[in-house]
């Protein structure tokens, strides 16, 4: 595709402007206010074209959608707007702020052994200028051309990551860069890091192809983290844009997942330049704080959106109540079409996975369902109680549970029926107390969950709205995280 030079220059300047304000105190000034997350849901939840790209992105960021090769074609424009807009920066900032709060809360021995692992591409350095020049992948991904870009050493710092890096150093924490870039890019990578403001490090670990050729990113990275620990370092934090940066033992004491819906550079992102240039001035808010269907021309609520993403990706943990200023936002979200759409993408993914399995048919294949906010919804309760803004009141919540009138979550009920049809048994696993067994059974039956297996047999899948439903050993062969910004269970 032919792209006029002027347009390329404009885009490159735009990106440079966004990325070069690491030290600046004011937010980046973007000439054309472009869409944030492009919510596109009506207040009553009516379907609007493009809404599923937002759900798709959440599915990717929460590791529900895995092994994808390419951004869905219809989402290319959406993702381009996201990466170039405020939202990407804001989403990153909430996560790096959280990482710093965590680091600051630790009482660290000042023995030089505390280390924080940083991934490089799309975590410390951004390759967006490359993708802009190459039409954001309109030209097919070309490894030779990408390596030529890397060798220019001109990748820019991701501003929020650079801030975090400096703050960690000031706490006496050492930094290790751990990257899938090959050893022969060591010199240029080191120079690029320094020029971008990452001046010092304890280790710069690149992929030694004589050891790791053909090995997965998880294998390479966890192996190298284990080596660090063997050398006596304590990995207190680990930050990356890919789940493969963060999974695999040892992970480090706490991990932080930066946004990256593009999976650069494995993914080919096809972005139409026309869609970027033809940007309406109106900003679409994810969930306007009004109940009306019209979008408001203000960026209010922006950080609630980032807060929600950070919660769903397990970056913000241990929180007690929804931030006061996000009550309206969260209320609109859970009552609007977006919550359903987000759930639908996850349950569809779960069903596709289940269908792809060749199950033995011996009646021992089990799928674990959490109950609250997974199978049954307590929204009527939360709607009366500030959508998670009010501190949790156990006795009041139990009074609600005992009424046994919680409605089903429609997408979960559909998944339940489809799994049964595949011959998979269902086990409900809940934190509800034994004394609530009768009311819970009746509530489940009355809402369409007619049958279940009580014993936990061989677990093939596990779906829940809390990370605590999904973490731990015996997770099940694959886990699925439903959205839930209302409360947090450790
Ligand atoms: C890939 O990039 C290299 C270097 O820029 C170029 O010579 C080559 O023609 C490109 N290949 C394709 C298939 O476009
Ligand atoms: C990191 O985790 C280890 C093992 O659980 C624990 O002993 C240690 O106290 C943790 N360190 C910090 C700084 O939290
Ligand atoms: C399941 O079986 C079918 C046909 O026997 C086969 O084509 C497919 O690859 C199998 N899938 C898996 C995940 O093993
Ligand atoms: C919790 O709910 C109970 C029952 O509705 C009520 O009596 C009590 O005052 C509430 N506690 C607080 C701290 O609000
Ligand atoms: C689930 O995982 C176990 C252990 O890794 C494996 O043996 C089994 O084949 C897997 N089952 C399915 C259905 O994928
Ligand atoms: Mg990366």
TrEMBL record:
Gene3D superfamilies: HAD superfamily/HAD-like. The keyword Lyase does not apply. GO terms for molecular function: acid phosphatase activity. NCBIfam families: plant-AP (TIGR01675). InterPro entries: Acid_phosphat_B-like (IPR005519), Acid_phosphatase_pln (IPR010028), HAD-like_sf (IPR036412), HAD_sf (IPR023214). CDD domains: HAD_VSP. Keywords: Signal. Residues 1-24 form the signal peptide. This is Acid phosphatase. SUPFAM superfamilies: HAD-like. The keyword Oxidoreductase does not apply. It comes from Turnera subulata. It holds the Pfam family Acid_phosphat_B.
